[in-house]
Design a protein that fits this description.
Layout (H helix, E strand, L loop, with lengths): L4 E2 L4 E5 L1 E3 H8 L3 H9 L13 E3 H15 L4 H22 L4 E5 L1 H13 L2 H7 L7 E4 L5 E4 L2 H6 L7 E4 H12 L4 E5 L9 E4 L6
Parallel strand pairs: 5-9
Antiparallel strand pairs: 1-2, 2-9, 3-4, 5-10, 6-7, 6-8
Helix pairs in contact: 1-8, 3-4, 4-8
Length: 207
Amino acid sequence: MVTSTTFDRDWVFEPASFSAKEVTEIVGLSKQLLRLWRSRGYLPEKDKGKWSIYNASEVVDTYLLFALSKLGVAPSEASRLVPELSTDLLFFVATSGDGACDFVGPRNEVEILREAFDRDMRTARVMIRPNDESRYVVSDGSSNLCRHSDLGAALENEMLEYFFSIDLVTAGRRIVERAKRPLLSFVYQGLCADTPMVRRLSHGQNG
């Protein structure tokens, strides 16, 4: 799970927080199913009440659990697979959607970091440390998963007879669109008290 951490000497990045209602809207599942999965230990239990807070990593975990269950993987098995995929999907969230991240700090510092972030994926790689950047998660309806960068090539080479898949690039973009606000924030820490601050949004990198 990605939590608030120092990105370099001057920058910290922080996952945004979301309510349970927002999580259900982003993921597309019911409040009842979210509560059931929490009670059964498939997702971390929260304090009872309507003010349960989820960070961006937990939103991604919930999305993956729901997506895998729709592919025919039992939730008990899916919850075991989610940690293998969580940082990979968060990486695609950060790089696939316009406005997935925001940058807060002095104008010059913000523009330098945002330009580097939007130019290539190295900053996101250092920040999130994905395990596998292959775009597709493929399942045969069981808990056996494999990863492919190019489904067309896999089909052409007759590697897949029948399958279900999750497109992590599209999933990342949809999460950003439904969240309607940044999921990750870069905050500049090397500030003087009277330094004017600006806020800028990232641009998506995956088409």
